[in-house]
Amino acid sequence: MPLTPDQLNKAWQEFKVFRSPNARVELINHYAYLVKITSGRLVTSLPNGLEREDLISAGVVGLIKAVDQFDPTRDVKFETYAIALIRGAILEMLRSEDWVPRSIRERLKALDRAMMSLESRMGRPATEQEVADDLGITRQEVGELMVRMGRTNVYSLDDILGTGDGEESVHFVDMLADDSSDTGGEVEGREIRRLLSEGVDKLPERERLVVALYYSEGLTFKEIGKVLGVSESRVYQLHTQAMSRLRNFMRQVVGVSPV
């Protein structure tokens, strides 16, 4: 049974102040519904060999991490923080399963490199036709790749700072609230959050709205499509373009090497 607001505040206090294991369990059980919601929205169709329970198990790991690391004194809603870590844990599991064929990954990386290169040269986002001409493929193929990119979650706000092949990514959500971080880490985290917010503000209006509705409001791509009056596939494309622009922006201002 869900905790009342008073019971919830008491549980947070008992866990964070007195490190009560019972309060920790109460918090995990109370917020368990976030795992089911997030896993259902993140992966609508399961890859071969995976069961819904696999996603749930990975999501629970993210929820437990969120409860353990969350700082109630900071100006961050727990649900927002927890959903981000749950999503991140599920994505990590999917990556470890390597369920996207290497040939597709290579094509997606080529698409990303072409989009960034063209934007750097032209000083503006490239159109689908310009990307198609650069890659020597059709505009339709570019659109299909963008949809595939969104559906395979190659790009996510959870790890927008990829540091290169074989290296560990910097997870933005891990900086939202981390009791164990030192003062220097907190300052760095605040600066990266500021820069990322600046990057989001620079996005075209529709891409900015997709980012807000997906990451802040928790809507699915299908639900966002209804809000914008476009197809679900178009929302995937807008999300992919937004993530590519944010990655490019963060690499430029933070100096992270391209993937």
Characterise the protein shown here.
GO terms for molecular function: DNA binding; DNA-directed RNA polymerase activity; sigma factor activity. Belongs to the sigma-70 factor family. Sigma factors are initiation factors that promote the attachment of RNA polymerase to specific initiation sites and are then released. Helix 3 packs across helix 5 (78-97), helix 6 (102-122) packs across helix 7 (128-135) and helix 9 crosses helix 12. The chain has 2 domains: 31-97, RNA polymerase sigma factor, region 2, helix turn helix motif (Rna Polymerase Sigma Factor, Chain: A, Orthogonal Bundle); 102-254, Winged helix-like DNA-binding domain superfamily/Winged helix DNA-binding domain (Arc Repressor Mutant, subunit A), CATH 1.10.10.10. It has helices spanning 5-18, 21-30, 33-42, 52-69, 78-97, 102-122, 128-135, 139-151, 183-201, 205-216, 221-228, 232-254. With 259 residues, it is mainly α. It contains 12 helices and no strands.
